[in-house]
Amino acid sequence: MTVAVSSPEGMLPDAPYHHVAVATGTRQVHVAGQVAHMPDGSPLPTDLAGQVSQALRNVARGLAGAGAGFDDVVRLTFYVTDWEPEKIGEFMAGVEAVADEIGLSIPLPPASLIGVQILFEPEVLVEIEATAVLD
Q1: Quick one: pLDDT at residue 91?
Q2: Could you report the per-residue pLDDT of 46-92, keeping only the tens digit for each?
Q3: Whole-angstrom Cα distance, residue 31 to residue 130?
Q4: Is the dihedral of CA 119, 102, 3, 105 positive or negative?
């Protein structure tokens, strides 16, 4: 594994992500923002949890295409429309629903969740970017 994650003492406790990732390797993988588009072209899920799950599946596809997985990820960035703290339960339900399927450990790698007014299509509720490091 090229990434070691940790949460040093004194940082926000019980966060659903690690605060620090240290990576050793020579190749970086940057996965562009992924949304909940379905591989077969069917409509996007309409709920936040469903969109988080599908967007994470799409990130996993991008990582796999570069020979990487979530164990190689040093950073996740989530953009969520009309964010309110009350949405964290539904957001995490989407993460937890797909974590085992795609090999995503919880707590997550270091992550940021950024509230935005709108994404590039009105029905898109979440967009996820990933950065990974490989040997």
Answers
A1: 98
A2: 999 999 999 999 999 999 999 999 999 999 999 999 999 999 999 99
A3: 5
A4: positive
**What is the average per-residue pLDDT within 78-107?**
98
Distance in angstroms (rounded) separating the CA atoms of residues 37 and 44: 6
CA nearest to 63, candidates 17, 102, 95, 24: 102
Burial 64-101 (b: 16+ CB within 10 A, else e): eeeebbbebbbbbebbbbebeeebeeebbebbeebbee
Element (H, E) at 49: helix 48-65
Residue 52 has which token pair? 């988080």
Phi, psi of 50 (to 5 degrees): -65, -40
